[in-house]
Specification:
homotetramer; 301 residues; alpha/beta; Alpha-Beta Plaits; Rossmann fold; 2 domains; seven-stranded mixed β-sheet; four-stranded antiparallel β-sheet; 8 helices; 13 strands; globular
Chain lengths: 301, 301, 301, 301
């Protein structure tokens, strides 16, 4: 048996985000962006920890950059740097950028239904210090997981579904969420969100769903995958848009299955993939590693 | 660098198929099948090398069994055992079975177009002794790979496509194939086979195609996968049926990609998966490891 | 977002083990074993649900067989069948076999230390109905996880380690375990078990440990893996023998990492693999899918 | 079957390297590097296509940066930019850098023995346009693959091994290689290279070897892996150093195996992983994506 004396598992996150800030720059590619961003950061003696950059076409395509820098010896406060970036990037380059102090965790609401595998996995990881977020609340259309959620010290709100008219439930959701969360995670939440809700809530929404090769859209996907004899079961995490399950993909993974697996087995193996894929998508989003562009994402993972 | 003295890579196949036979039994599940099959084989002192069995429902579901046994000390010739099995399984149990001397390789025709990755990989594996088949011929609608195929000592036939009417080309195909092959492999063959051809040729046909999560059916799948930002690129090997790309799946696999991959990269990574998946499907089929049932397969790999 | 109406995730296990029994047969291979076993089961009208068999050499090698059959219409009680098998297999064939009613779950003790990822994952899967076991107790050399374990309704015993002399602690372990458990799981238990304890407790012990390509044995494996720049982090579940970490492997898996991952990241990704690999090993062992032979395993998964 | 009309597979490489240059910067991390590099490139109106950067510790750790930029509208020749970088980075920052015109392919020698799987895979990929290299020669201690190599139009040199004294063979190798190649690939070359040779030849050497969890060092690794019942077989590509198989890892991967696989099967599945892993290592090295540092690598893949 293992007796290696490692540091405890509740170790610091990949990017020790205390005293660090991230800068996302995004826009039409052109010569000189890198030097311009670099000169602003250099002027304030920002010590760059990591820098990732991607251009889908250097001749006028889309440009994406993520810079993480330390705040320790910084010669200016973040708002001051923000002003400098605005002056330097906003006018000449017409770039969008966002600057964020990574030591301030994103506030997150998790939506769930009856299935608890994705929900509990996120709460566990959060308690272990794996996710740099604050779980502000869990909202569910079923009361089943209330006890478990509250055992983590996290508020649980039961907002029942009431048939096809979602307006009352969504009004309750908005009352709970507005001003309180920076993004939402649908952890196997089995209700459709209306376009109106998505627009009104105004924060990114991450969803997880099963996925197959080939896809089985609609009811009973696992049963149909079994009929077709698929050899892989997968999951896809994506941003929610009005187009059902068609939003930008953040992360995907699969697991092997065989003819000997029942439909219930496929669903269970699928659940294992779902929780892993969703947790990676939440981690990357909360570390500002994901940039949306058209209907896809740039992930600097 | 490595200096381990291993046996050469051209080592014998997983099932040393010389002096072995396989027996596939398939039908409605009921009590006593195992004992009945076992008693026939035992009577002739067949030494069972491996036995795999699966039932999708023990109460009258479908039953599948693959037995491999040695021919060395067998007390009867295979046709004699075949008769015994017919007497024992055919009447009381209404089972189908097929008995095959594994030392007689399947004869295979490979269909290809311009892309050579799947074709060459099969020919090279065959030469290494990895595939217990005889490659009877390669048929292509393009002349491009003729030289390479013939360098392997394998006949190459160029049968050009001539627009939407495939009847002339398919007549040529049938003339080449009839009586000469036990199964057909479409190694990125970019032409549709007609239902009439599939019925007339009368042997199993294995195809390989790309696959994605979610699926992108129709033209330009890699370009559309890129637009959606997929994180996995896959391939599916399946038996060809009249329903385009909807036949029983034999094998699938995927490889990770990222936003930094171009459409050409996706296609190339996809090609790597395609050749691996297709070679496994061909191996398993040629070792009688795959049983078709309704629209799926049982794979005793 | 997803709205597919699947059956709940707390679905029945892969082998609906109620009213089923498993028969493991194991010994020197020879002609006629399959027929002999089949005839005993057939005599009692056992409906065979699945049958897996493997021989590492049909000419006198080792033979392994796992049969699952239904108890519904059985014409005899299990002890009666056991007697018949003893008469038929024990004398002529010198085979070992074990017959087990799968509806009686194995009783399991889980040993843990401070890290909770494997422990909680097992308890949660058990509550979901994924593992056909009874968790009889959790034993830990640290009190940290007591509250969480007891929240699952499972007894928690704190047996502190007391330096190099383990005899007092192991005596306490034995007092708790003897007669109460069918196997033990070391869920990241960071203490060495003595050879005396392993012999005395007399039940299989499953351990999980990290693993790398190449291996980094001894202290600080993750730090050393980082220094060498490994691209994969893995985990191995194995049976515990007196040879530290050298027992028969049950299951392994890996996850990709990159130079951008810190030692803490490697450890965390490793933890994800550990819990998945351990849960599969526990599932397969509890379903009698694993047969130990010399220093390896046959896994009919 | 598939009828999608994709562009041909012989598509351009991931980074269309014509008219592009790569700049690798490497040294002790400090504030201002990014701005300094950016300002030199910006001054000459270099259009940056991609930029990856990593620091293992922003407070005086090691800094790594890879920039790819277009040469189309460049306002200076590369040597001029090289001078500017030398002036800007060499003195104040004590950084090392290398600038390279990516349209000039690396010249590569491939060393092989009897096994052809890695060798042929590299030659295929090269012919398909997947690898931006020139294969200058193949050197083998066995004549077996001469015909196949020459069919690709590539020189083949047979330099037999002559027992433990490698000095004569290595002198031949050096005579062939000196001045003619930019790096060497050992494609399952089964001879040890002496430290003197490695130093004298003066170019990077990439090797591929099998790898397992746990590692089986020394003779007969596959046989010993089989005895231990491993469930994964892997391969590791690394730079060759004087420490046998202990050089910096470039890439690794694994494939699943089971108890039913023979030693020959493990070796064959291993061969599939080896060729894939080696080809990725060669691709990344030839695109200047790999930076060696101490005993590991930074791979901007």
């Amino acid at each position: 048996m293992t007796i290696t004396q490692e540091a405890p598992l509740q170790a610091p996150s990949r990017t020790p985000t205390h005293n660090q800030a991230s800068l996302i720059v995004h826009g039409r590619d052109r010569t000189g962006i890198v030097a311009a961003v670099g000169s602003v950061l250099s002027k304030h003696e920002a010590n760059i920890v990591s820098l990732d950059q991607y251009s889908d076409n250097p001749h006028g395509g889309a440009f994406f950059q993520r810079t993480v820098f330390g705040l320790d010896n910084l010669k200016a406060a973040l708002p001051h740097i923000d002003d400098d970036l605005k002056a330097r990037l906003g006018t000449g380059f017409e770039l969008e950028f966002r600057l964020r102090d990574l030591s301030i965790p994103h506030r997150v609401a998790i939506f769930a239904s009856k299935a608890d595998h994705c929900l509990l996995d996120l709460l566990w990881r959060h308690r272990r210090g794996e996710l740099p977020i604050t779980v502000a609340m869990v909202i569910s259309n079923h009361p089943d997981t209330a006890g478990e959620v509250r055992a983590f010290g996290i508020p649980f709100f039961h907002v029942p579904s009431a048939g096809p008219d979602k307006s009352a439930a969504e009004a309750q959701h908005l009352a709970l969420l507005k001003g309180n969360v920076d993004f939402i995670v649908l952890a196997r939440y089995m209700q459709i969100l209306s376009g109106g809700f998505i627009a009104e809530v105004g924060v990114p929404i991450i969803n997880i769903h099963h996925s197959f090769l080939p896809a089985f859209i609609g009811a009973g996907p696992y049963a149909r995958a079994k009929e077709r004899g698929v050899k892989l079961v997968g999951a896809t995490a994506h941003y929610v848009t009005e187009d059902l399950d068609e939003g930008p993909i953040i992360e995907q993974d699969v697991v092997r299955v065989s003819h000997a697996h029942t439909v219930a087995d496929l669903r269970r193996r699928g659940a294992d993939v779902e929780r892993d894929v969703l947790s990676r998508a939440v981690l990357w989003h909360s570390e500002d590693r994901v940039i949306r562009h058209e209907n896809h994402t740039i992930v600097f993972a």
